[in-house]
Specification:
about 200 residues, mainly alpha, Ferritin
C-alpha cells in the first residue's frame, strides 16, 4: 500500500504544478515584527475545480487501471467456455466503461486534462499488454483459468486504490464514484469466486 501513497503524492504534485503553469510557488514574506504572524490551519492544497491533489492523482490512476482491463473483459465475454465468467466479464465491461466516462467527466469539470502517464505501466491492478496477449493465446479451460487470475488481481488492486481515495479524498462527486467502484469490485470478486 506504500506505493499508493508515494504515487498519489507524486501525481498530485505534478497536477498542482501543471495547474499552476509549472511555476515555483512564491516565497512567503514574514510580516513585520510589529505584527504577530497570522496562525493558519494547514490545509491540503487544492487543484482547480475542487479536486485535491489526492483526488486528481486517483482519477489519473483509476482511468488507465480500468482501461487496461477492457481487452481481457471483452475477450472473456466473447470466448469463455464458462457462462458465469462470460456474464461477469460482460457486466464488468459495461461497468468499467461507465466508470471511465464518469472519471473523465470529473477531470473535465475540474479543468484538468487526462495525462495518461500510467498507460502501459506494469503496476498493481493493471493488466499489461503482455499479460493480455499471453492469456489470449490460451484456449478453453486454460484461457478461463488465466483470465480469472488476471481479473482477480485487477479487481483486488483497483478496490485497494479506491479505498485509499475514500480515506484521503475530498471531492464529493469523485468520492461517490469511488464508492461505486469499490462496491462493484467487491461484487465482481464474490462472483469470480463462485464456480
Amino acid at each position: 500500500m506504500r506505493w499508493l501513497t508515494v504515487l498519489f503524492s507524486l501525481v498530485g504534485a505534478m497536477v498542482v504544478l501543471g495547474a499552476c503553469g509549472a511555476e515555483p510557488a512564491p516565497t512567503t514574506v514574514s510580516p513585520p515584527a510589529a505584527q504577530p504572524p497570522a496562525t493558519t490551519t494547514p490545509t491540503m492544497p487544492s487543484t482547480t475545480g475542487g479536486l485535491s491533489p489526492t483526488d486528481a492523482a486517483y482519477a489519473q490512476l483509476a482511468i488507465p487501471q480500468a482501461e487496461s482491463a477492457l481487452p481481457l473483459l471483452d475477450a472473456v465475454r466473447a470466448r469463455s467456455g464458462d457462462p458465469a465468467l462470460a456474464e461477469l466479464a460482460a457486466r464488468a465491461g459495461v461497468g468499467h466503461r461507465g466508470e471511465l466516462t464518469r472519471l473523465h467527466g470529473v477531470l473535465t469539470r475540474a479543468g484538468l486534462s487526462y495525462l495518461g502517464e500510467h498507460e502501459g505501466h506494469d503496476m498493481p491492478g493493471m493488466i499489461t499488454r503482455d499479460e493480455f496477449q499471453a492469456a489470449d493465446r490460451l484456449t478453453g479451460a486454460e484461457f478461463d483459468a488465466e483470465a480469472r487470475v488476471l481479473l482477480r488481481k485487477h479487481f483486488e488492486e483497483s478496490a485497494a486504490v479506491a479505498r485509499a481515495e475514500l480515506g484521503a479524498g475530498a471531492d464529493a462527486e469523485l468520492l461517490a464514484l469511488t464508492r461505486d467502484i469499490e462496491e462493484s469490485r467487491g461484487d465482481y470478486l464474490s462472483k469470480l469466486s463462485i464456480r
